Amino acid sequence: MEHIFFSVLLSLSMAAFAFSCYRRLVLVAIGKHEYRFDQPLARFKEMLVYALGQKRVMSRPFGLNHVVIFWAFLVLAVANLEFLVSGILPGLSFALLPEPLHDALAFLFDICSLAVLIAVAVAAVRRSINPPFPGARTCEAYFILSMIALLMLAFFGMNGALIASGVRTASPFTPVSGIFASLLSSCLAADQLNLAVSVFWWIHAVVLLGFMNYLPYSKHMHILTAIPNVFLRTMGKSNTQPREEFSEGNIFGAATVDQLTWKDLLDSFSCTECGRCHDSCPAAATGKALNPREVLHAIKENLLQNGTVLEKLAGDAQAERAVSLIGEGKKGATPESALWSCTSCGACMEACPVFIEHLPKIVKMRRHLVQMEAKFPDELLNLFENMEQRSNPWGMAPSERSKWSSQLELRPFVAGETEYLLFLGCSGAFDARNKQVSVALTRVLDAAGVSYGVLGREEKCCGESVRRLGNEYLFDLMARESVAQFREKGVTKVITQCPHCYNTLKNDFRQFGLELEVLHHSELIAGFLASGELQLEGKMEELGNLVLHDSCYLGRHNDVYQPPRSVVQAVTGTAAGEMERNLDKAFCCGAGGGRMWLEEHEGTPINRARVAEALALKPDTICVSCPFCMTMFEDGVKEVPGAGVQVKDLAELVAQALPKTSK
Amino acid sequence: MLVIACLKQVPDTTQVQIDPVTNTLVRDGIPFIVNPYDTHALEETLRLKDSHGLKSVALSMGPPNAEATLRKALALGVDRSILLSDRAFGGADTLSTSNVLAAAIRKLGESEEVGLVFCGKQTIDGDTAQVGPGIAVRLGYSQLTLVDRIEKLDLDAKTVTVRRKLEGRYEIVEARLPAMITVVRELNRPRYPTVPMRLASAKAEVESWSNEQLQLDVNSVGLKGSPTWVSRIFSPERQEGEIIGDGLNDPIAAARLLLDRLVQGDMLSV
Questions:
Q1: ipTM of the complex as predicted
Q2: Which terminus of chain B has fewer CB atoms gathered within 10 Å of its CB, N or C?
């Protein structure tokens, strides 16, 4: 009788669960098309490493706790399957297996259940005394932990009662259940034990099925979506933004859930609210409105609120009914100020254990504001006009671009005669401090005997800032022009001193059909030092204690971490001083994502926070490898009276260490 | 009621150079921009369109390539863009330019009442600040120059009250419509075109009027109608400096040398 009742309950639960999942899938399908199924083998491998292997989860404290729960859950999934099957067909259970195998499984289940119980307790304590992010002590989180604990306790109670009542014999392979058995037999009478088996069995059954049906409506949905989300990640780095097609009638950027892609929406269902993105965000850390976790959460809320309505509508009706993703103080919306405070440093994406891509969503919303509403911070109007009319952020006359090198007799780039194009970038050509870096770099290249030429006044801005600021229309114009110019001149190999130019020429221009071999000066110099083509004189002791700052667009966005370090090693003879947040966890200088051109009205300046972190190491020199970082550090250091620190670009260190005879 | 913005397409003066031999502007490859003051005139017509429901028109006299400027005005939201282009208009000074613009405004006024005409306070290439006042005089409009704020526009009473930004003081002036207003940059913050508007403007029509439409006496327009002409353009002579020291290889010594020179020449007040 009981198992017939259970069969009905199970069928209903399964149907309800399937329906809930289907509803979620339909919501995800509202998103725009995006192809994420290329390289299936590589994707599968990533899934093994990052989802099953939990590589990123383990990279932070308490990650191990999650690994224990995750793997124990996978093992217990087998136990739970047996539980459900034997619930319908009582004869069908692992008891039918050969004894050694049965014992091994029983032991595994017993130990795993204990491990989960301990890990859940640790998680609850941790959340209470040291929550992953402020506001993480939600009822939902504790409810989920309690449900898991209850499931484990019911499992032990059921097995303990079975042993205590003599249905199952005590075995050394189920030590924890054995303890529960002695506990139960000491406090329950023999006839009560049979009832206890039933009670625990039903508690286990109800919690299991209830929890399963609760999943799709909670943050615990991630146990269903995280693994596919890793499989569907952007292969390689998410260091570029999708192109847009500029024809009439199209919608640009995203202001409603249906204007995001299905993967964007799946991301929102994959967020577990672990808070790591929030932890690593420079804007959040310095009191800005941005919280990458809440951006994702708002998308999910918005989708849940409006998705069901949208899904039934088509075309214009959909656009009219959709509730905006952008707005102040509304559920399911991100404030504009939050969108504008992103530095596009990518720390959130690097930290996310399930490869949620925050940045493309932020840029899509910026695109909407700039392109559909022409709504953006006041400072950007001049920037956009300058970029469009004069192809540089300051509105300098393009004819002034080659002025910095008027004494240097640089060769123009000519295909066949010069091997590399030295792409200076706007900072390297116009900014007083960074012009010194340009001079130093040409000295280093000359010393290494590199064959290079420049575009001089014909060089154009790469457009990186306008793209990250959401002005894709303008970037499209600028990129097309540059790509055509590079093609016409036969440029194939480029040296950049700016990681933003580097990323644009290397990754963004590929979308415009131009494949370039792009080297940041740190890579080129490191190569020359390793091969002996560049000789340095002695070790530069006057640089003193040197601390290295990672540029986001070099490191996190392009995995160039070692070259700057080996150059510093070669120049100073010792390894660079490392800040606590370095390499893939490096803290942004505050200038990325177009923030270089915006005032920092909210919170405290990001550069001040980073400079303080560097100064804690008592350096004599702070070494950067990006003109934006240079500006931010120079400004930051000036604000600390008596800091006595010099900020140097990598190229300047090397130029200083060149033998005095070479020029 | 119409509100009209007069725009001029000018060479980007930061990029203009003067040919040392011929003493003329080198225009090759120099990009053209909308005269920066005119962008504020245009913005104000768009704001009045939004706030008072007036119909906005952008007007420009220039060669056929000035169409780009008018197309930009369409992208920003004007209802009509009209290019006044004719070989006969070429080589115009401020007098004959204002003759042509005034004639076009008069013609527009035949089908719909003109309320306000906005001009930038001056252009960045000619810097005369005469065309706006010239239009006002020729049309008999109230003339309000150097305006940095529209205090009040009363369409029923047909008056406009503005604030003029003068040297060290402001002046609040009320005038009867129709009025010609020249604007300073503090008046407003020009808008940025949305992408859908830009795409639509690429296909929208820029009307073109020649002297066939305006029917002006050919002696009152263009070079023939211009009592002033430019006899010579030149850059002021500058003494060539001298490079001292070797800043590239020894910046500290070079800086010292420079300081010594400045002290010697008594150019630093110590």
A1: 0.90
A2: C
Q: Kindly report the backbone phi and psi dihedral angles of residue A646, in degrees, each rounded to the nearest multiple of 5, phi listed first.
A: -100, 145
Q: Which of A247, A369, A381, A389 has the most B C-beta neighbours within 10 Å, making it the best mutation to test the interface with B?
A: A389
Mind listing the pLDDT tens digit for each residue in A179-193? 999 999 998 888 899
Distance from CA of B75 to the nearest CA of A (A): 12
Question: What class does CATH assign to A2-227?
Answer: mainly alpha
Closest CA to B55 of B31, B81, B32: B81
Mention every residue, 6+ apart, whose C-beta is less than 8 A from residue B43: B76, B187, B188, B189, B190, B191
Find out whether A144 and A220 touch, Cβ atoms under 8 Å.
Answer: yes
Q: Let me know how long chain A is.
A: 663
Q: Which residue of A has its CA nearest to B33?
A: A389
Size of interface A-B (CB pairs under 8 A): 48
pLDDT in tens, A417-457: 999 999 999 999 999 999 999 999 999 999 999 999 999 99
From CA A247, how far away is CA A205, in angstroms rounded? 56
All structural domains of chain A with their residue ranges: 2-227, 257-373, 382-656
Instruction: For residue A319, name the pLDDT band (cuts at 50, 70, 90).
Output: low
Distance CA B195, CA A477 (A): 12
Q: Which CATH class is domain A257-373?
A: mainly alpha
CA dihedral A20, A22, A26, A29 (to 10 degrees): 120
The answer to whether the beta carbons of residues B112 and B55 sit under 8 Å apart is yes
pLDDT of A204 > 60? The answer is yes
Do residue B192 and residue A246 have CB atoms under 8 angstroms apart?
no
Chain B: nearest CA to A244, how far in angstroms? 11
What six digits make up the tokens of A93? 């259970």
The CATH T-level fold of domain B2-220 is Rossmann fold (3.40.50)
Q: Which residues of chain B does A662 touch, with a Cβ-Cβ cutoff of 8 Å?
A: none
